[in-house]
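Q: Convert this sequence to structure tokens.
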Amino acid sequence: MSENVVIVAPDGMADLTPMAVFLAARQLRLQAEAGRIQAVKARGQVPEVCGDAIPEAPARGAIRVFQPMRLFPDGKENWKARPSGYRGRSAMQRADVFDVMTAKAASKGKPAPFTREQVAAGRYYRDLVERHACAGVMCSSIEALRGGGGCGNFIDAVLRDREEIERIRRRIGSGTAMAVRKIRPSKRGSRKNITDRCLVDMVCLEDKPISVVLKVNGWSSRGQSSGALRQALSDALERVVC
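A:
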């Protein structure tokens, strides 16, 4: 809804003098800027269940709220899982592409598009690739690498991560998730083949949802394309799980 600002003269008529027009335009700019700032602040708002110790951060992006759990002694021999959040509060975590796609499906009353094992496999692959990419800076990455503790152990850990990445990529395979050869040349347009490896990397490493993967490669996200590509990703992640 648009808003108009009109300067009215004492006689009840609209004041169209240059100064009045300038003031009206300035007021509109101030209102638009106030609305923009309010929208930015709303994006960074912290849910009340997480408490006020977390700062507002609009650049944080989408988040998910969860309740940290921890095992506590229950009697002499038993253990019981109980909430362990700071001051009993819930915690926040930046939502990745899997969280976003799951939330979108839930909003439409549909089940989660991927199993927990498939999501865990995709996140494991992402974390592995990111850790290996940071391995060139030894001082900042050695603590995150498995077996860190010396130069030899550092190199061994880097090599193990590289071997693990290569193993996962072999499981992903070199197949084609979406092929243009099945479409008549007159209807192909700018569409490009989407390989399984490209699909997994764009979703897991670049945090792009299925709709964006289709758009980047010239496909429409409508019709059967989204379902077909989602199934192809599910199959590729299932191969990683196995």
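The chain is about 50% helix and 10% strand.
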